[in-house]
Amino acid sequence: MTGSSRLPPGPATNPVRQLLRYSFRPLEFLEQGASNFGDTFTLQLAGLGTFVQLTRPKDIRDVFKADSTVLHAGEVNALLSSVVGDTSVLVLDGKSHVRQRKAMLPPLKGERMRTFFDVMQAEALAVAERWTGAGFVRADKAMQGITLRVIIRASLGLESGAEFDSMQRDMAKLLMHVRHPLALVMWKLFPLERYENSKILPFYRMRRKFDDGLHQVFDRLRALNPADRPECLLKDLLATTYDDGSVMSYRELRDAIVTVLAAGHDTTALGLAWAFELILSQPEVVERIEAELEELTGGALPRIDQIQKLPYLDAVIRESLRVRNVIPMIARVVKQDFSVGAFSYARDVILCPSIHLLHMREDLYPEPTQFRPERFLQRKFAPYEWIPFGGGNRACLGQAFALYEMKVVLATIFSTLRLERPVGAVSRPVRRGVSIGPSDGALVRVTERRQIKS
Asked: pTM of the predicted model, to two decimals?
């Protein structure tokens, strides 16, 4: 094995202080580490472990290509089991991970994904209606509403009504706990395996209430003839048969659905909120989006067959996800000695392809802090150069769904409204649980309701 066995340099401050800085000012803390220590550096986060930040594309490629027996992702995500459960694809490794991923991937892409176009557009139009005349509103809250309602329908096949409203309300309450800046610390202190049945901790009480409602939906759909079940992820999972002939248990169903509800909702909503913040800061970007939509649709609402014919809007979304990282880093725990770059890493070191720092590399993205969508029209970036959805065998299952939903929502909103940001508005990146969102919610205001041709 080549390379040095020592760790890369890093801050000498107390691990508790490092954890607090990462909890409350994550991007600033990462940027300072890169400035002080270079492309590869080590953080010691109290109670969580040794985190080596990797920012070179080649190093990130090597991590993504590593054998899953050498680097584990599920183990380092174990804290998330408090939300998604211990059979979630996010917290599994090895054969168990492959089995669950194989079951969940097909419904989240391709034709099944596009069956939710009408729902996505209808939700975006409802937001446009509410925003009109309402003054400045938080884009993040509105986008959370859209993505939650869409993912509930896509996951569970629920239509509007009392059952849908109850599921939306309970999921929103559960996610309020998840968005706390110290959520990771709290899950470490109060892990699922010890506190799942706690009657004192509000999070676990809310989790049980939500799960009870979820199991009622499972029972109702399971009782239906398969042909009569609504088109949704749950329908597919109920029909899933593993290689050994077994079917998904209630716990596996629950964890699969909650994984999609949680991961497929909040991150997409924050991505959309950041997109509004960036787009509206540059009038020329707005004009080019509007011109592309006008040329394609003739002033009508975009149709399902037109969504994939918006290359500039696609570039806008990809550049937005580059500039404003919703998740700052990826993590892999070393299970066998592993070399990357000039260093060799021993068991239990956590290697972290840094999404934020990679996307801010001057040699890869000249003037990296500038929002320039044309980057993605001028060249195609490798899957280890643009990584908002992770990569390798752990790339986000919902990547195609999220990009599609972002495009439908933005195409619909910009076909319908003209918007502005407050003069001098600044949206600072702040922690929302494991995610990064805008401090002001990305405030926007409608200045004009556009005439839509039929």
From this structure: 0.92
